[in-house]
Amino acid sequence: MKFSELGLNDSILEAIGYMGFEDATPIQEQAIPLILDNKDLIACAQTGTGKTAAFILPVLNKICDQGSNGINTLVVCPTRELALQIDKEIQGFSYFAGADSFPVYGGGEGSDWDKQKNALTSGADIIVATPGKLLSHLSMGYVDLSNLKHFILDEADRMLDMGFHEDIAKIISYLPKKRQNLMFSATMAPKIRQLVKKTMVDPLEIDIALAKPAEGVLQAAYCVFDDQKDAVIKSLIQDKPECTSIIIFTSTKKKVNTIAKALKGNGYEVRGVSSDLVQKDREEAIRRFRSRKTRVVVATDVLARGIDIKDINLVINYDVPNDAADYVHRVGRTARADTTGIALTMISPSDMFRFKRIEELIDTEVFKVPVPKEFGPAPAWNPNAKGDKRGYGGGGGGKKKFYRKKK
């Protein structure tokens, strides 16, 4: 369906056209008319499906038509990176709409507080905020949300996983009772249902291709021992000079710098990005990555949901994520907007059972690439394996035997 068929006004359509969009994605096609009709909505959609535009476009449309008196819309999301990304998209879409927005998040410099306070008190049309920093401002008593029309929770499941349930409840206590509530989430866990009951009024529900990577992602995996990962990844990057934008995901921030250090000195720039970096350094690392000055970024799952960079060629999972749904978000960094990309996963024996659960979630058996013999004997694919003891099988050749702990 074309955006021109969704009931959006000319100013919004002009902005959409200026940004090069013409056809709406499924989540946009279904959500935009409902939001324009002032319905409460909960939408499940994977990353990379255009869900930010699905809630921003109809909100901007209403601001164009009805005007705004103070803060019109509050978008709450889990991370600084996502807040900045949403704000950037709003600025693009609102170019011809006459609406303004401002991101409110922690981790910045002291002067950021004054800028955020000014935006909150002067009444920016749209505020995009992380829970903790927003509550800090709300507790000071100078934020007026009495004219709020739209309350949006983006990445709701991630916020609850990060322990923001009480913060969200406190934020809601500051809002006017009469408002439109929109919740966007990648999964529909029971705790999401509980939050819906407390927050929304007779919400409609949209479920778009939940928990499946985009069709353009070529997925493959390597069964390796932990001490083989660095060498295999170096070889993969070296053999793919056409991949100029690569993200390597690891499950813990402790590993980020270790992996980045192991990959440096191979003729391309590598940067580690985690919550241990101060905000200024994180933003600089992402800027260099976006401008292709940095070829490889090593990051935690925080970046999986909080960054939107076009044309990422290759995603490598250094280890299998603990949460099966996080695999979808990591993989979703590539093959965005109907493009193609590659997603490769390093699977150690202790991670095989978890990866099997991922395959069940996405309803796909991911091809296991034989490990080249020069890397030595590699473990065979065995979802029932335990531990990471050295055995044989897989691409390394040798006897197909895998040692397991005795019961």
Question: Could you please describe the fold and organization of this structure?
Answer:
With 407 residues, the chain is an alpha/beta fold. The chain has two domains: 3-208, 3-Layer(aba) Sandwich (Rossmann fold), CATH 3.40.50; 217-396, P-loop containing nucleotide triphosphate hydrolases (Rossmann fold, 3-Layer(aba) Sandwich). It is 38% helix and 16% strand. It has 15 helices and 14 strands. The chain has helices at residues 10-18, 26-36, 51-66, 80-93, 110-122, 131-138, 156-161, 165-173, 190-199, 229-238, 253-263, 279-290, 301-306, 324-331, 352-362; strands at residues 41-45, 73-76, 101-104, 126-129, 150-154, 180-185, 204-208, 217-223, 246-249, 270-273, 296-299, 314-317, 341-347, 367-368. The strands form two sheets. The chain has a seven-stranded parallel β-sheet, with helices on both faces. The protein has a seven-stranded parallel β-sheet with strand order 10-11-9-12-13-8-14, sandwiched between helices. Helix 6 runs parallel beside helix 8 and helix 14 packs across helix 15 (352-362).
